[in-house]
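Quick one, T. Sequence first:
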Amino acid sequence: MEFGLSQEQTLLQDSVVQYLNGAAPLDRIKRFVNNCEPRADDVWSGMVDLGIPSLIIAEEHGGIGCELLDAALVAESLGSCAAPVPFAATAVMVPWAIAEAGSDEQQLRWLPKLAEGEVIAGAAVTEAISTRLDAGVHANGDTLSGRALFAIDFEADVYLIADRDLSLYLVDADASGLRRRPLTTIDKTRRYGELVFENVQADRLPGSSDPEVCRRVIDAGRIILAADTLGASQRMLNKAVNYSKERMQFGRPIGSFQAVKHMCAEMAAQLEPCRAMMWYAAHAFDARPEEARLTICHTKSHLSEVGKFIARTSTEVHGGIGFTDELGLHYWFKRIGANRQLLGGPTQLREEAAMRQGLVEA
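Structure tokens:
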């Protein structure tokens, strides 16, 4: 059996990369970072024109009706270009949660707007995975109180919130009693933040009384982050190989030296199997949900380690210029580092996988 991408999926990826190479080159990324822009609206508008926000939304709500694998392929392209646009929450986690657990009224209100790119949605579900002593959100009827850290796609119009019981709520960004505070992270190409709730009115997703819904939302986010890491790692590998062919030392390209060849070959050897691993994990989310969580845990944890290795090794191949802002390699380096920790680091994910296999007690 051959498991690969369809012609339509390959075209989707190529279209996104082609657009981002023109709309979000390194200079545009630097302007976004240095000017502390909340959103890169010009880049986002092009993504909307390509139909990216509507990717996994059903056709009846104005979407395209694709599966998570298609969204993961877009995420890989975004990571490859270090694109400064929202995606994991606004185009995947939140639409999936509303479609799966939202009422008819909630679906009619939000899904068409998300599909059209009119609304940006953030997700604050980290407390469903691990909670600091002074954080966590608790519900009292239709109101929320507490703190949620590391909201993804922070500069949003609406947020998906998980409380301590793993129920899910929608909260308007301008809701009374909600305070938003941007967080400084190593990754400046995307926006993260903290949400503080003081008796904030929230709209509960009625189908989220089953904690499995929240866990599935987290699964979807994890595979999107893993795909983003895959794309960023591939771009760093490509940059290292290209540089080794151009940089001259002792009258010959440094890529002709055995040590540099080995560094590039080791990066390629470690990364290539991750692509099929990511494809299958994303495919399993829709087609084989019974094995999806275990596969996704393994995929994100493994790609986090491989990405870390490639980020370091690619920088070493570049030598001193690899650390400079002029080259900009650090944008991909830091993006990989942020993906590594968001929604669970490798150690935590391996522990979850071990518990799911019955190797350790919960």
